[in-house]
Amino acid sequence: MHQQHVVIVGAGIIGLATAYNLLRQGMRQVTVLEQATVDHGQASSHGISRLLRFEYGNDTFYPEMVRLSLKRWKQLEQRTRQYLYTPTGTLALGQGPNSFSEQSYQTLRSLGYTLERLNHSAGAQRFPQFRMQDYDFLSYNANAGMLHASLCLQTLRTSIREMGGTILEHHQVTAIRHDNARQPIRIQLAARNEIVADRVVIAAGPWVHRVLRNEIELPIQLTRQYLLYFANLPLKEFSIPAFPAFMADDLYGFPIHKQGNNGPAWLKAASHTFGAPAEPDEVPVIDEHVIKHVTHRLYDLIPALKQAELAKVESYIYDVSLDEDFILDYLPHDKRIVLATGFTGHAFKFGILLGELLGSLVCDDEPLVPLTRFRLARFARQWQTPAPSVA
């Protein structure tokens, strides 16, 4: 019996999680192609931590996905005996009537989650590190935490290899040839050789346009984002459990945590506001005006940061769909190729679940979560497919 060969382009969280789930389902021939190395510095999945939060305004769909995903992260922890997730709780601060924080609170309560509504007095007593006067809706959700991103990637990489999967680093994809549906898909590499596959998953992050440049014009924009790391803060006041993860309008951040096993312990914060257009292969340039604006807003929110040291600024790229929802779908006119893109800076926490959903597309199985919301057809008037190239 023919065993299908599945090739996954991209070894970020989505690509690795897809390979992991396919292998667990019994697939024997699974290959992941990575242009650099797993967890390389320019990858969207790279880094020490990602927020796992349930707050999505009045949206009930994503909180349910978070619940399913957290369950799978904990199962992976048990299987691998790794600590991939640390509970932190989330302090959410909102401004004005019907703010994102208030919508999230009401929605999560309606779904049965236990959240605390805080007044200013209680908030100041419990979390004195924050200046809350400018916010009129305060809530605390204990059902949240942070994933240790690099460790998650390394754990999945190890698991894939232990299950017989193949990860080929330094294999850059330059084109995908699939003109004849009766012939295998040919994946061309920068080294001028090629790999053949029966099914392909494209999870290339910000490089998706380059991989598919002769195939389809995707409704994905790339934006330059920054992470800020602050040093020399009192550990007792700014680490767990005294200091939670937080969300305040577009600002978000984490308690002090270490940069690797032997690295420094820093507080991490950022703005989720979409930045300037970016290209994945360009040399990152730090926009000092943006950094100054974000730091001053963080100073207003957490006054102690004024005396802290801004120890590091990290640059990375969002791949953002026009409606900020993911794209999980087949390539038009060829169901052998699956697209995974548009992850907008909020996909990592879903990574292990998204890998399972993409595995369902590869295997033509019924997905655990309905994928209608993630279909490419929702952009039917906004994207177009160029004429197919001739091999």
Key words describing this protein structure:
2 domains, six-stranded mixed beta sheet, FAD/NAD(P)-binding domain, flavoprotein, nine-stranded mixed beta sheet, D-Amino Acid Oxidase, Chain A, domain 2, disordered C terminus, FAD, 21 strands, alpha+beta, 391 residues, N-methyl-L-tryptophan oxidase, 9 helices
Assign the structural class, choosing from mainly alpha, mainly beta, alpha/beta, alpha+beta, or little secondary structure: alpha+beta
Task: Write down the domain tally.
Answer: 2
CATH superfamily of the largest domain: FAD/NAD(P)-binding domain
Classify the helix fraction into a percent range: 25-40%
What's the architecture of the largest domain in CATH terms? 3-Layer(bba) Sandwich
Instruction: Give the rounded overall mean pLDDT.
Output: 94
Q: Please describe the biggest sheet, giving its number of strands, its sense, and whether it closes into a barrel.
A: 9 strands, mixed
With helices defined by DSSP (H or I, 4 residues minimum), what is the helix count? 9
The first-to-last residue Cα distance is: 29 Å
* β-strand number: 21
Q: Helix and strand string, N-terminal first?
A: EHEEHEEHEHEEHEEEEEHEHEEEEHEEEH
Shape: globular
User: Strand content of the residues, in percent?
Assistant: 25-35%
Radius of gyration over alpha carbons? 21 Å
What is the CATH third-level topology name of the largest domain? FAD/NAD(P)-binding domain
Weakly predicted, low-confidence segments = 383-391
Please identify the top-level CATH class of the largest domain. Alpha Beta
Cofactor: FAD
Pfam families: DAO (PF01266)
Protein name: N-methyl-L-tryptophan oxidase
Keywords: FAD, Flavoprotein, Membrane, Oxidoreductase, Transmembrane, Transmembrane helix
